[in-house]
Design brief:
Number of helices of chain B: 0
Shape of chain B: globular
Distance between the termini of chain B: 41 Å
Radius of gyration of chain B: 13 Å
Number of strands of chain B: 11
Largest interface: A-B, 22 and 21 residues
Largest sheet of chain B: 6 strands, mixed
Radius of gyration of chain A: 13 Å
Oligomer: heterodimer
Chain lengths: 116, 112
């Protein structure tokens, strides 16, 4: 399965600032997914990022708040903009490295964000 | 839209005992996947079930997909301290929607 390098692993940020999270995959993948996981909660899909097109956002998430880049088939970034304490969460990227086959999604190690 | 219910939310198990966690969907599924997330870690893929009534085993873990493809279970026998973590099901709808719908998770703690 794919190997994902996600960074930073954690950060403490001031409210009103922005943080960009990066995910690098060791193989080419069509779709990359960004999730948020609040403490003790399940995973909530933020958006799906396809190379060469704008990301598709889920209900409750907007591009101005969570801009995403997908410059190539192995890399993506998620920016958390104009942060507030409510944005404190774990953010994870995920890929499906074997679409069409029996597969599972591989997750990055996550970015633990604390906004103060 | 598709709704996923996973129960129980918490499971406190005596070491050596068995337990089961369940996932139920309001709609028919294409497939279901199970993940385990250790405390402080990220979700790790365990298995995928695709066929109606399918049963798969991984050592002490038994995964089952319902006949109607609307529910699934994960049964762990002889629980060990290494089983501690949160187990999530994630369901893919039959409309070929690639989007994952994660259950709320079952957080398992083990007392020695």
């Amino acid at each position: 399965s794919a190997v994902i390098s996600q960074k930073p692993s954690r950060d403490i940020c001031q409210r009103g600032t922005s943080l960009t999270i990066q995910c690098q995959v060791d193989s080419q993948v069509t779709m990359m997914f960004w999730y948020r996981q609040q403490p003790g909660q399940s995973l909530t899909l933020i958006a799906t990022a396809n190379q060469g097109s704008e990301a598709t956002y889920e209900s409750g998430f907007v591009i101005d708040k969570f801009p995403i880049s997908r410059p190539n088939l192995t890399f993506s970034t998620l920016t958390v903009s104009n942060m507030s304490p409510e944005d404190s969460s774990i953010y994870l990227c995920s890929v499906d490295s074997h679409p069409g086959a029996i597969h599972g999604y591989t997750f990055g190690s996550g970015t633990r964000l604390t906004v103060v | 839209g598709q709704q996923v219910m996973q129960i129980p939310q918490y499971q406190h198990v005596q070491e050596g005992e068995d337990f089961t966690t369940y996932c139920n969907s309001s709609t028919t599924l294409s497939n279901i996947q199970w993940y385990k997330q250790r405390p402080g870690g990220h979700p790790v893929f365990l298995i995928q079930l695709v066929k109606s009534g399918e049963v798969k085993k991984q050592k002490r873990l038994t995964f089952q997909f319902g006949e109607a493809k609307k529910n699934s279970s994960l049964h762990i026998t002889a629980t060990q301290t290494t089983d501690v973590g949160t187990y999530f099901c994630d369901m893919e709808g039959s409309s070929n929607d690639y989007k994952l719908s994660f259950g709320a998770g079952t957080t398992v703690t083990v007392r020695a």
